[in-house]
Write a structure and sequence with these properties.
mainly alpha; Immunoglobulin-like; globular; about 60% helix
């Protein structure tokens, strides 16, 4: 029984490390894709598109859809921001997963 608990503890620790690495990689994707031209985080970037609490308000799946299916999500949310967000469908799966992981860490403090 102790071995099972030890294995579970190691898996949980590794998951946390992997999540932190994904979030760090996602912050780089955010910068590389120049997302701050339209969005801001912690006061850096365009204040009209603050993402400071996006992780508190949207699920990971919804964040993913906003990135890859922006026009559809904007219509669903009745969002009329100009210019409209373009879909980033060409991101690799790894970059998309990392960006979603990063944005999910942005929660109200």
């Amino acid at each position: 029984m102790r071995h099972v608990i030890a294995v579970i503890a190691v898996l949980v620790a590794l998951t946390g490390v992997a999540s932190a690495q994904s979030a760090t990689a996602g912050a780089k994707v955010f910068a590389d894709q120049k997302c701050s031209l339209c969005h801001s985080i912690a006061g850096k970037g365009n204040p009209k598109g603050s993402l400071d609490s996006v992780g508190s308000t949207l699920s990971g799946e919804d964040i993913r859809k906003w990135i890859t299916e922006a026009p559809e999500m904007a219509a669903k949310a009745k969002a009329e921001r100009k210019p409209a967000m373009k879909p980033f469908a060409s991101l690799s799966k790894g970059d998309l997963d990392a960006l979603v992981a990063y944005l999910q860490t942005l929660k109200k403090s």
